[in-house]
Amino acid sequence: MYTRLGRPQRAIPVVLGVVTLVSVVLLLVWDARPSLFPAGAHDFLGGFPLAMIAIAYLWYQRGHKLSAVDAAKAITLAAAFLFWAANQYWPNLPHATLFNDIAIALFVLDIFWIIVGWPPDAPDVSFGEDSSSIQP
Length: 136
Description:
Blueprint: H1 7-32, H2 41-62, H3 68-89, H4 96-116
């Protein structure tokens, strides 16, 4: 059963989320005015928010009493973001394409699990819905 975390349990994920949002704003400022940033800043600015939201999400999920299956799903999603971050941060590495392809595979797997209803006891809801909005 999913329960909402209290403020103390959400504090660190929320702070990490705010830092992530600030980094996204900086990324968008780079898009508008790249001359304001040092050379190569985009690689960091593109990878940092992806890595930070993965860490924030894992920290948030650790506050819940997750089953092993739900923990594996949370780790899969966070890993997808981390591989995507690696691709953004190190775009010139020989393995950058592999990092990107692993991220794609993990994102696809995560959504496929939602579509097929795995695990079987997971609520049948889409992102942003709660189970009370579903009509029988």
